[in-house]
Fold:
Amino acid sequence: MDRNTRARLRHALVARYPWVTDREWGPAAVEAGECDGCGAEARLVRTCGPASGEYVGRRCAAALGPDAWCDGHEDDAASALAWLSALPGEADLVARVWWVATGEVAPPPGGAGLALAQLGMPAP
Ligand SMILES: [Zn+2]
Ligand SMILES: [Zn+2]
Structure:
């Protein structure tokens, strides 16, 4: 995927999912990758609790709750958990496509077309 295609994809994603560029939580706020807890969901927040510095996705964050953050960051925990629970069901897919659009990860075999089709979005 070339630069211009990635730029078009970023614009399309931001128009539909403005939360992707949030600097505090979400795909733009963490290093691209899978959840450190389960390895099977997109990582969307960084925690600082007992397992300090872990990046977790929605399911693991919900399971850990505020304990995933340290005592000094109770407010962050509350806003992160609220932010995550407001995401649409397809948020993991959106995050993975976002990382392709930013060039952080290579497109999956066969390109990003399948993921976009699953989101109901045209190829950029
Ligand atoms: Zn997880
Ligand atoms: Zn903390």
